[in-house]
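Budget justification, computational time. The allocation requested in the original proposal was used primarily to generate structure tokens for proteins on the priority list. As evidence of use, we reproduce two of the resulting records. The first is shown immediately below.
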Amino acid sequence: MWTLITLLIINIGLNYSNLHWQQDALVPASEEVYLQEDSDPWIGTPREYPSFDPIIFALDTLIPALDLGQETAWQPNWRNPFGLAYALYLYIVYKFFGLLLIGVLVAGIGKRLSDDI
């Protein structure tokens, strides 16, 4: 469980760094919004488009059963070197270990509950 929390905290930190220092590393997933403004896709984001929230994005990408709308609205920018590195981390390390650790956590809780019955 602590490893899962550590992964979540690392991803939240990366999301905040994307938000403040490498804003073009994360872009809107909708092509109508992303391609609307070539220089800065964040400026072209319409009001009804969900704004990026680093904590909710981290939870949404870690737990596949949750659909908080951030993963479908935002994606790493594969053209930006930092965005590419973040995408590789997100899709290979974070999601893989997140799914593995959530499975272990659920199995452990299930085993604990079955022992108590």
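The second record produced under the same allocation is shown here.
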Amino acid sequence: MPLRSRLPLVSCLLLLAAPAAGLRAKPFTVPLYDGPPPDAALSADPEVVIQKEGDPIVRVTHVQSPDLRVFLPPPEKANGTAVVICPGGAYRILAIDHEGWQIAQWLNTQGVAGIVLKYRVSDKMGDAYQHPVPLLDARQAVRLTRSKAAEWGLDPQRIGIMGFSAGGHLASTALTLADKPLPGEDPAALATGKHRPDFGVLVYPVISLVDPWAHRGSGQILLGDAATEDARRALSTHLHVTASTPPTFLVATRDDAAVPPQNSLAFYQAMLQAGVDGELHSWEKGGHGFGMLPSPHPVTTEWPRQLAAWLGSRGLLQKRPAANQGAQ
């Protein structure tokens, strides 16, 4: 049966899932906005956390209180790098554990702060938070994380964004549409550029909302049934990669039947054409939605190792001099 609660239940589930070492730096939650979230009425249904018996996936939907769940690494391991994490779920739910909390805990083992974004989604087709609501939340998450750099021991020039499936689409919009003004966004906040990620990680991401390999479910929720071809192209992020797109690491599997690997391939091809640094890693088997769930396929253990190697190659796992930490 569904479990209905808000932060207390989330915290309980999180502590049950956390490894013993993580108890030294207890995660905490901060609201995404000081007041009411912009540009959309709250979901008519109460926010709910659901975990069905025997199902390893924890789902959050009808989000009414977008927030950040902050996982800071132990001080002796911390290197100042942080990643805002966008769980997937077709813009209907958030798979917040294996594509959120567990990812943050793994990042902590690399000395990286994991910042899990609970962005606005709803599981009712007629009650969806359509574009630009999720992107407003993603931008605010990067902006807020950067503003807390001194308090959280972060380097404001090493703030990345990471996303899975539809969360990968959201992260890719944050990476490619940073110059685009959005309804409900403070123009002064946009002008600062503090919403721009410094790097990106896209894991089995939705990239295209147009045929032939569009993920129609995500597009339908995000833009509605009546969306035009132009509206879908405007949020098909491989079409918006430029030389200013941050370095990006991509993960795909050939047998992904939910989000075809052509999504990742198209984004990477656009990166090559624009001269954007990054890597694409593709495995033959693994399907979709694996995150950090146990699996017989090598991808589930190998993609984090490859990501760590890439982060290390870019100097993102090395500590910087203390004078640089938290500098604005």
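A brief technical remark on that second record: The CA atoms of residues 187 and 300 lie 41 Å apart.
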